[in-house]
Amino acid sequence: MTPEIQVELADGVLIATMSRPDKKNALTNAMYGALADAVARANDDDAIRVLLIQADGDLFTAGNDVSEFAAQAMGNRGNGGNGDKGAEERHVLRFLRALATATVPIVAAVQGKAVGVGTTMLLHCDYVLLADDAQLITPFVNLALVPEAASSYLLPLCIGHTRAFEMFALGDPVPADSAVAWGIANRTVPLAELRTEARRIAGKLAARPTGSLTAMKRLMRDAEKLVTQMDSESAIFVERLASAEAKEAFTAFAQKRAPDFTKLARQ
Ligand code: COA
Questions:
Q1: What is the pTM of this model?
Q2: What is the Å distance from ligand 1's center to 171 Cα?
Q3: For residue 126, which of 178, 203, 180, 51 has the smallest C-alpha distance?
Q4: Whose C-alpha lies nearest to ligand 1, atom 48?
């Protein structure tokens, strides 16, 4: 349990709210654990008909806590993230697997920036509502890492290779309108209406026949393929985390400067 993930059940909708606004909802291992528990609960509890993921503060999430990535890169592997096996369970993998295999309908309400896993988790949601200020950012290569959450498969499938390559390789923000036009999200709403509209959609889904919805979702998604892709990504992610390139990226983040990869040879 962490107060940085708030969970409440209302009218058959389980609402999981990321709430670490001072750190832009950067996700720690404990937060991934609470999110994984929420997805599992929503999937397994018959009283829950829809899961809604949202966030407090001015942005959805800044993605994985970079200081935990850095700790892993330094060899402290118990801190979460996508690193190698450590003494502490890596809840990020449990969260991602739970998302990939969930049959409960998942709605996401996104304001401001959704960075890294903040964007890739949306590829596992069934209805993605964006505030008009939303921006999707996947800066894995900027951090000398590789995409996760089966996004190396799902994003090109959704928006085509060239757009996905550009998002991953350059990490530039994709504005809400483009994300809708490309099929990553359903539609945009004014920021002030985001939560109300997300609840309305979740409520509408909760009134549908749940058995039919979950059977339909199971048919639409190849969960086994997604988990296999995640395992492949995770193995390469661990290698990249240990690279000199990643060390430079994390040091630069801590020092609040741009990284310089130009003096590092390809490894
Ligand atoms: N991990 C850990 N801390 C983070 C973080 C992250 N991913 N993102 C933001 N923070 C922290 C900042 O270090 C800062 O902490 P401080 O107040 O103690 O200095 C605080 O959150 C506010 O961040 P700041 O950068 O000042 O906010 P901003 O509104 O100017 O920018 C972002 C927001 C998200 C654009 C920017 O913080 C950012 O790019 N973060 C890194 C995103 C990233 O690379 N994530 C990993 C993806 S794989």
A1: 0.94
A2: 15
A3: 51
A4: 116
Please work out whether the CB of residue 26 comes within 6 Å of at least one atom of ligand 1: yes
Q: Which atom number of ligand 1 is nearest to the Cα of residue 65?
A: 1
Q: Residue 134: pLDDT above 80? A: yes
The CB of 27 under 6 Å from ligand 1? The reply is: no
**Phi/psi of residue 45, each to 5°?**
-95, 120
Which amino acid does the sequence have at 115? V
Which backbone phi and psi does 211 adopt, to 5 degrees? Answer: -60, -40
Contact between 62 and 118 under an 8 Å Cβ cutoff? The reply is yes
Report the nearest atom of ligand 1 relative to the CA of 142: 44
Helix (H) or strand (E) holding 201: helix 194-206
CATH topology for the 5-192+210-255 domain: 2-enoyl-CoA Hydratase; Chain A, domain 1 (3.90.226)
Q: Which amino acid is at 182?
A: W
Query: Which atom of ligand 1 is least distant from the CA of 67?
Result: 2
Query: Could you report the per-residue pLDDT of 67-118, keeping only the tens digit for each?
Result: 998 887 777 544 334 444 445 788 999 999 999 999 999 999 999 999 999 9
**Above 80 in pLDDT, residue 65?**
yes
User: Does any ligand 1 atom lie closer than 6 A to the CB of residue 20?
Assistant: no
152-181 pLDDT tens trace: 999 999 999 999 999 999 999 999 999 999
